[in-house]
Design brief:
- It is a single chain.
- The protein is α/β, with parallel strands linked by helices and 220 residues long.
- It has one domain (24-219): Flavin prenyltransferase-like (Rossmann fold).
- It is 45% helix and 16% strand.
- It is built from ten helices and seven strands.
- It has helices spanning 2-17, 39-49, 68-75, 85-89, 107-113, 124-132, 138-145, 158-161, 164-175, 201-219; strands at residues 26-31, 53-58, 116-122, 150-154, 179-180, 184-187, 193-197.
- The strands form two sheets. A five-stranded parallel sheet has the order 2-1-3-4-5, with helices on both faces. It has a two-stranded antiparallel ribbon with strand order 6-7.
- Helix 2 runs parallel beside helix 3, helix 2 packs parallel to helix 10 (201-219) and helix 6 (124-132) packs across helix 9.
- The longest helix has 19 residues, at 201-219.
- The chain is globular and about 40 Å long.
- Bound molecules: flavin mononucleotide.
Amino acid sequence: MATNSKRAREKTSARKVVRIRPGTKSVVLGVTGSIAAYKSAELASLLVKQGHEVFVVMTQDATEFISPLTLQTLSKNPVTTSFFDEKENWRPGHIELADRANWRHGHIELADRANLLLIAPATAHIIAELSHGLAAHPLAAIALATRAPILLAPAMNGKMWQHPATIENVEKLKARGVEFIGPEEGMLACGYEGLGRLWKVDDIAFRAEFLLARQDNLIA
Ligand SMILES: Cc1cc2nc3c(=O)[nH]c(=O)nc-3n(C[C@H](O)[C@H](O)[C@H](O)COP(=O)(O)O)c2cc1C
């Protein structure tokens, strides 16, 4: 009995230290200031369960809708909300595996490390920023710097989604290879019914998995 519980303890601590499994993919999960932001918690959790390392990057407005602490806990990694997070953590050179638990990755490091940049929910604002190549906060800068596939799951009021400005921005991004999932039709938090709801979280996670697997097939 005592030996069993000792073994169980050893197993648990071994799991805590060895955080990065071979073959693990890195997903940068961007969260923006939509009422659907709370759904990113389930998405982060699903991606972790799917075996990926997840780094959440939030816009300032997103932090009004869901706490970085929630996403930090579910993703098991520090959450980036500002370029100035990097001030306290900057350190030159290689980072030891054991130090990674407390390491807040710089935005370029995250951009390089990502196998997929998934932004869910994606506001009209971030879609406009990405289409114009703006880089005023870490999430937008990562989108510019990464060469990983980008998947956006928009959520917004239907009139915003169907505005010519948004349509133009979406078309521009699609032409650059950015993929979209949703939005879907339904009752919106703003009281309207129409096209603008965040796509089902399970399907977003499934689509992310497909894009990650597709890279392996292309490389193989
Ligand atoms: C309660 C509330 C809900 C909102 N929901 C959305 C939304 O679902 N989609 C959207 O595009 N904007 C929404 N907005 C407006 C965005 O928060 C606003 O455009 C903000 O500037 C987005 O910033 P970000 O893209 O940097 O996070 C909402 C605002 C409030 C106050």
